Amino acid sequence: MKQLADTFWNLRGVYRVGGVLDIGTHMSVVRRPDGRFVVIDGCALDDAQRAALMALTGDGAQVAAVMHVHPFHTLHVEATHRLFPAATLYGTARHRRRAPSLPWDDAPVEAWGREHPLADVFDLSVPDGVDFVCPDERVHVASVLVRDRHARIVHVDDTLNVMAGPGMLRRVLPQSSLRMHPMLSKGLKPGVGAADAYAAWARDLAVQWADTRIVCAAHSAVRRLPEGGFADEMHAALGKVSRTLERHRARYG
């Protein structure tokens, strides 16, 4: 568990594609102004991580809420709830369908407006122009991006990626800049204007969250940014998918 700011901690977990390649996953912990905590997502924890998390949160008693923000990150929802059974539980509509017995609170996270239940600490963003839950369930482009306003740190699953070498190679291979999801072409809605809507969302986010200093990406690393780096890397990431967007416009108008 790494403390990235006075209010923000990130824990890295293992997620192997095909049981071999570890592309990583994560969860984050944010301290609210009242001293209680919000847990974002869940992942498998080793003994040291679990002990550190419990020590930070008063054996879990100080966790006020748990929120799950990617509809396809569902493996550790029930285990995370068992760690913090008294916390208010938020999730997407798909989380609710996958675990209907859990005590979900409020509307699905992707439907929250500006005055949402955690608005005292978080700015949220859902990408436009893409299906939040794609008909092809192998495509995991969309999620709810979460920004700790005080720490200026973004927690994101899949929608933005930071590629890093696995294992020992991480020390010698350069970390990538921010990248859009590699299956964006399959995630875009099949209709007029979807590519433009996605591009507009990315440009707007680059402006609105321009002072972001760290991005914690599930796959597969934490990205520390210089002043102005978030806007620069978002624009560059958008440029790298320009051909994908152009092909979509050519097909759908």
> What kind of oligomer do you see?
single chain
Sheet with the most strands, sense and barrel status: 6 strands, mixed
**Shape designation:** globular
Give the rounded overall mean pLDDT: 91
What is the ordering of alpha helices and beta strands?
Answer: EEEEEEHEHEHEEEEEHHEEHH
Percent range for β-strand residues: 15-25%
| Strand numbers in spatial order across the main sheet | 1-2-5-6-7-8
Helix content: 25-40%
Segments where pLDDT lies below 50 for 5+ residues? none
Class computed from helices, strands and strand pairing: alpha+beta
For the secondary structure, the number of strands is 15
Alpha-carbon Rg, integer: 18 Å
Q: Number of helical segments?
A: 7
Whole-Å distance between the termini? Answer: 47 Å
